[in-house]
């Protein structure tokens, strides 16, 4: 769906104002697309363009920097969009001057010259996704330009969503509800269903509704302490057995905007081949209660660290977490809590700040979107997982994920 009139112009103006405040003469935003759904945000935000060319190694002089795209902004000048595919969607792109090029760094260098930035101080958003070779070649072609890291500049604009963006995120969450619910229904039914088959049922629903899936992280049974056990892909051909803990965290984009949440079920119960044990029920409920404790305090003006404290404090109180780093191993803690310690994060066009960590002091504001999550562990039993998506409102929050909470 194309953005409404004035949406991109507002974003360009805000980006240029932020650039001016940092002493930049202009701004270069670089993204990647196709298989890199985690790297498309800044160019998509400024233009509506998503590239369809995946990463391809440079080949002689035929192509250099495939999969990269860029937007160049300068005060008083029309923005430029550089794409690496001739079949870009003109009807979805909000920039008039679009340049298709197989030599990406050469095209960006020419755009900088055309906008009078070849000797300017240019903020670069996208050093985290640009290949080192592309950056070197670009620097060599505009030696008089100071290309200054500014990866956080556009992200800081993206974290507060416009009304148009919030509608897109609500629509994505509705599709995500159907995807995750279908995965849970399939997995809980058991009967020899594999992890892969459960995910496939959910993906049928999502793909038909227009989801570009990022991933669905799966673990089950004796491997439930893992966030994802199989890797490449994240689901295995393991047959689910009655009584297994099965959890899934599914994340994908609908028209560019993410849903990102997950649930846990017990295979075969209730009323199936296996009843849920009291210990399993307490573990699964503990994750839900912890996330809800965090959501309960969400409101504008509080630091994201306060949400972390609420989630983690609940888990500590019921014996499902520890602050003892020596006990943080795969027997006593989930892989997620060891390797990804936040209890959530901002999201929109990818994952964004604020990070729900004890050190995150940036304040919540209306229009931010948060995913709040917990993955507690009981030694000898395994791990459960629960995550909810929400919008920060003027007086609290709006819960986006309506999918059933309890699947045991």
Question: In summary, what is this structure?
Answer:
The radius of gyration is 23 Å and the shape is globular. The protein is built from ten helices and 16 strands.
Can you walk through the features of this model?
- The protein has ten helices and 16 strands.
- The protein is α+β, with helices and mostly antiparallel strands and 408 residues long.
- It has a six-stranded mixed beta sheet, with helices on both faces.
- A hairpin with a 2-residue loop joins strand 8 and strand 9 (257-266).
- Helix 6 packs antiparallel against helix 7 (195-208).
- The longest helix has 27 residues, at 163-189.
- It is globular, with a radius of gyration of 23 Å.
Kindly report the CATH topology of the largest domain: Creatine Amidinohydrolase
Oligomeric state as shown:
single chain
Helix count equals 10
Helix content: 25-40%
State the strand order across the main sheet. 4-3-2-1-5-6
Radius of gyration based on Cα positions: 23 Å
**How many angstroms does the end-to-end distance come to?**
38 Å
Shape: globular
Could you say which structural class the secondary elements and strand pairing correspond to? alpha+beta
- Tell me the CATH architecture of the largest domain: Alpha-Beta Complex
* Major beta sheet summary: 6 strands, mixed
